[in-house]
Amino acid sequence: NAGVTQTPKFRILKIGQSMTLQCTQDMNHNYMYWYRQDPGMGLKLIYYSVGAGITDKGEVPNGYNVSRSTTEDFPLRLELAAPSQTSVYFCASSYSSGPSGNTIYFGEGSWLTVV
Amino acid sequence: DQQVKQNSPSLSVQEGRISILNCDYTNSMFDYFLWYKKYPAEGPTFLISISSIKDKNEDGRFTVFLNKSAKHLSLHIVPSQPGDSAVYFCAATEMEYGNKLVFGAGTILRVKS
């Protein structure tokens, strides 16, 4: 019963490096999201997708890119990593666009440190 | 500019007593509110929600109250149990925008046995 799977769980990047956070869901959900959580702050939406081939910016998209070539996968790419991108990243998915909260499933998080 | 605020970073409660977690919002367009619970090293999990057409919603030990005029909601947990110790996030959205949630900073609840 995998649900939403994120990899890697932990990563240390040097300033200027690039990397991709992987997210896969096995629930055939159309909607997928990337959030980041900074210390002492709530989760902020980076990007979201309403289906394969369709993505849109959230509240804090700068420095990130996404793609959605399949229903299952929604990778988040960091280009030219900066210390401000040190955060915990959560991928989530839902089968509807309605706000019924129990349809949103979160992954366990990816801890990223940029030094 | 925080649209959803949880002004208490932490709360400590004795087992069996009531826990009350508070949340304020500034955006009057928000019409759906949710509470999420998060354990360390895990993703948030949905707890309970409420639509702006209601002022109360109950689910077992958990009750959410909404005061639209004050732009305030609260989560009551009765009775509190040690397993309830976690971070609780308040979130809000406009129904039109579906699951694009705006989260508060969270409140750490510690239930002492």
Which fold name corresponds to the CATH topology of chain B? Immunoglobulin-like
The total strand number of chain A stands at 11
Number of domains of chain B: 1
Distance between the termini of chain B: 38 Å
CATH topology of chain A: Immunoglobulin-like
Question: Tags for this entry?
Answer:
heterodimer, A: 115 residues, mainly beta, Immunoglobulin-like, seven-stranded mixed beta sheet, four-stranded antiparallel beta sheet, globular, B: 113 residues, five-stranded antiparallel beta sheet, 11 strands
Write the topology of this structure.
The complex is a heterodimer of chains A (115) and B (113).
Chain A: E1 4-7, E2 10-13, E3 19-25, E4 31-37, E5 43-51, E6 54-57, E7 64-66, E8 76-78, E9 87-94, E10 105-106, E11 110-114
Chain B: E1 4-5, E2 10-14, E3 19-25, E4 32-38, E5 45-51, E6 56-59, E7 62-67, E8 72-77, E9 86-93, E10 102-103, E11 107-112
Parallel strand pairs in B: 2-11
Antiparallel strand pairs in B: 1-3, 3-8, 4-5, 4-9, 6-7, 7-8, 9-10, 9-11
Description:
The complex is a heterodimer of chains A (115) and B (113). In chain A, 0% of the residues lie in helices and 49% in strands. Chain A has one domain: Sandwich (Immunoglobulin-like), CATH 2.60.40.10. Chain A is mainly β. In chain A, a hairpin with a 5-residue loop joins strand 4 and strand 5. The model of chain A has no long low-confidence stretch (mean pLDDT 92). Chain A starts with a strand and ends with a strand. Chain B has one domain: Sandwich (Immunoglobulin-like), CATH 2.60.40. In chain B, the strands form two sheets. In chain B, strands 2, 4, 5, 9, 10 and 11 form a six-stranded mixed sheet that branches. A five-stranded antiparallel sheet of chain B has the order 1-3-8-7-6, with no helix packed on it. At the A-B interface, strand 4, strand 5, strand 9 and strand 10 of A face strand 4, strand 5, strand 9 and strand 10 of B.
